[in-house]
Structure formats: structure tokens, C-alpha cells
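Quick one:
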Amino acid sequence: MAARESVDLEALFSDSHVGEVIEQLDRELVGLAPVKQRVREIAAFLLVSRARAQLGIESELPSMHMCFTGNPGTGKTSVAARMADILQRLGCVRKNTLITVTRDDLVGQYIGHTAPKTREVLKRAMGGVLFIDEAYYLYRPENERDYGQESIEILLQAMENDRNDLVVILAGYKDRMDTFFRANAGIHSRIAHHIEFPDFSQAELLQIAELMVERMHYRFDSNSCEAMKRYVAHRIQQPNFANARSIRNALDRARLRQANRLFARAMEGERASINELTLIDAGDLLSSRVFQKAAM
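Output:
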């Protein structure tokens, strides 16, 4: 039988159902155009790698370790979950699993504690994706008795020796990750893909709020939509702003105010209609301390 000389990339793509994951990513996450483009590029790269393998073209399996940088609430964990799905569908990892950890899950507080903690996390993550949030906290050179370096060395070994069965994604603020990499060149050399997550624009944050409200089975009217727009404009200028995370927190507090408002009326004998139970009104948003701080 003659050796195959071609492969149908479109059929491979269709059979993998990766397109469904990418479409889901587009639906679920507002904006992030450069991030979504990088996800598509990585999927295409893995697809071509699979096609080359089917044709018997020998090549070293690509390293898929990644670094996600950006401010809080920009979708890094959500994209990591979708990336785990894509990696599994294209045969890069065995399992569609995402294990999310921080320094506390990896580093012990006394001698002999760190190695078993780190190895236990790696054991759970093996075959899938390990997501280390705020990874720069692993390295604390100012503390001579810190055990983070021991965890880093174990991670380095796993990233090299088990790279065909484990993908590690490091995440955090860009400036702090840059400092971390300068101090730990061994990890930087093992990261193949660096993806930067931009902050959301005000228009995107308003769209995110509308999507969140819909998924919670609430709604805005014209007045509350305008109040949300004003909230975003003020909140984005204040300290500790966390993009979509701040929007979710604001909506959770607005729902609390709505519930208390309706309960107070119920204590006066009023019944609540379905329209009232689903509406976040302007007052529920305008009562936020964000407007009080903006007025100071």
C-alpha cells in the first residue's frame, strides 16, 4: 500500500470539535480579540502537528507551557479552562482537566513540607493542565528561610521531563511575572507561549454586565442600564479595580439591595411581581459607595 502523501486538515479540525470550543469562548467572553487570536493560532499549530504525525513526519513534540499575564478579572482562568479542552481534543494532554493552585498549595511552612505538597499537586494535574495563579509569589528572595525555590525546582523538572503529559500555565501581573522570569531563567526558557490579557474598555464592561445579568435571570431597564454605565465610568477610575470581577461584585451587591428593597415592601403587605423580582433598578446601583467616593 502506498504511503499517504496528504491529509485533510479541515476534516481533522471538524473531527476534533475544537471549533465548538472556540465558538464557546467567543460567546462567553467579551472582547479579548488578541487573546482569542492566540488561542486560534495555538489550535492551528497543534492541528498541523497532528497532521504531520499522521503522515509519519518525525518531529519533536512541541512544548505547550504558557504564561498568561494581565490584571485581575481579564479572563485568564476562563481561557485556561477552554485551553485545557482544546489541548485534550488535539491530543496534547490525556484529560480535559484544569487544576488551579496558588503558592499556598505548593509551598510548605517547614523543612520537608514543600516537596510532598508540590508533588501531590503535580500528581493531580498530570495528564491535564496545571494553572498556577500569581506564580511570582513562589519566589521570595528577601526571605532566606522561604521554601518557594524548592517548589520551583520540582516544577522545572516536571515541566521538562513530563512535558508530553502535563501543560503548566503560569499567570499574574505582567511586571511581576517579568521580574519572576528574570530571576528564574530556567522557567522562562520552558514557556513556549506568552499571552497578554488586555483590560476591558468601558463599553466592553457594560456588555459584560448585561451578559452577567441575563445569565443570572435578572434584567436592566433603560434607567438601570444608564446607571450601570455611570457605575463603570466611576469604578474604572478608582483603586483596586478588577475588570469583570469588579462588575460581578457590583451586580451581587445590587441584587442584595434589590432583595432588601422588595422584602421591606413585602413587610408592608405588598406582593412582588415577576417583573419586580427580575429587575435591577437604577436605585439598586446608584446606592453604591462608588458614587459617594466619586462625589468626594
